[in-house]
């Protein structure tokens, strides 16, 4: 069976480390590189529930998209049992688990986060929205769709609990997508002549400004826009290491719920 190090090397062939942003932390972040791996759990995030699931299944490794530590929003300053982050890290280490995280390098990689999102929405001929960093994708629907119907399509395809959207009604066909927080690419979507930009974590002002710029926006949530890549990772690892038991987390799901007053 492969070691953690060998699995990390395989994942870097899918999403080279050089593609990661300079603030990011990717690769093996916890555990023994020489540990033999028989069972892997894949999840978008490494949460307490995911760690418990991996332990219960007898896994040796968790592979996630979001780094479990040392990234710009979750720097490790201490590892203490009485803090949420410390408690999680100690649980992983005490149970001899390893963690490999593929983040912004997986965002830009061909076949990674954004290609998985484009595929989930049924976009044809997706390509990079911007050549410079290659994070977002742009593609076409096979035939035009009313904007509100497309918003419903996005919600259903991504199994989101709800989506936020804004923009004028009318047919849409050319679509830009950015998994996770990609609001900074709205102007690029406009410049490319897109009818809609699907991303997440949009602010009130970003919705407001887009109306004047002539772009329709759909915020489908951070988890729903990135979770499709987990199935890609499962399939990839199974192909690279026949006989390795790889599964997607059943416990990790969208944390944000919506209450909508009856229409």
Automatic annotation (TrEMBL):
Highest rank taxon of the organism: Bacteria
| Family matches, as InterPro entries | DUF34/NIF3, DUF34/NIF3_sf
The answer to keyword Metal-binding applying to this record is yes
Give UniProt keywords alphabetically.
Answer: Metal-binding
Keyword Metal-binding found = yes
One matching Pfam family is: DUF34_NIF3
Q: Which NCBIfam families match?
A: YbgI_SA1388
Family under the similarity heading: Belongs to the GTP cyclohydrolase I type 2/NIF3 family.
Q: What is this protein called?
A: GTP cyclohydrolase 1 type 2 homolog
**Which organism is this protein's natural source?**
Oscillibacter valericigenes
């Amino acid at each position: 069976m492969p070691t953690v190090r060998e699995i990390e090397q395989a994942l870097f062939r899918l999403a080279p480390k050089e593609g990661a942003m300079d603030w990011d932390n990717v690769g093996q972040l916890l555990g023994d590189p020489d540990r033999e791996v028989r069972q892997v759990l894949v999840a978008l995030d490494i949460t307490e529930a995911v760690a418990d699931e991996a332990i219960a299944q007898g896994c040796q490794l968790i592979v996630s998209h979001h780094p479990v530590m040392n990234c710009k929003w979750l720097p490790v300053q201490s590892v203490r049992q009485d803090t949420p982050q410390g408690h999680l890290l100690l649980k992983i280490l005490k149970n001899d688990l390893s963690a490999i995280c593929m983040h912004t390098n997986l965002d830009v990689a061909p076949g990674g986060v954004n290609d998985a999102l484009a595929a989930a929405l049924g976009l044809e001929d997706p390509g990079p929205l911007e050549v410079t960093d290659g994070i977002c994708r742009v593609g076409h629907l096979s035939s035009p769709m009313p904007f509100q119907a497309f918003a419903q399509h996005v919600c259903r395809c991504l199994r989101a609990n709800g989506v936020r959207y804004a923009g004028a009604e009318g047919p849409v066909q050319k679509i830009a997508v950015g998994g996770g927080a990609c609001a900074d690419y709205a102007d690029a979507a406009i410049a490319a002549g897109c009818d809609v930009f699907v991303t997440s974590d949009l602010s009130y002002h970003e919705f407001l400004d887009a109306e004047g710029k002539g772009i329709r926006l759909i915020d489908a949530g951070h988890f729903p826009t990135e979770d499709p890549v987990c199935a890609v990772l499962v399939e990839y690892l199974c192909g690279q290491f026949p006989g390795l038991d790889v599964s997607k987390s059943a416990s990790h799901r969208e944390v944000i719920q919506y209450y909508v007053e009856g229409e």
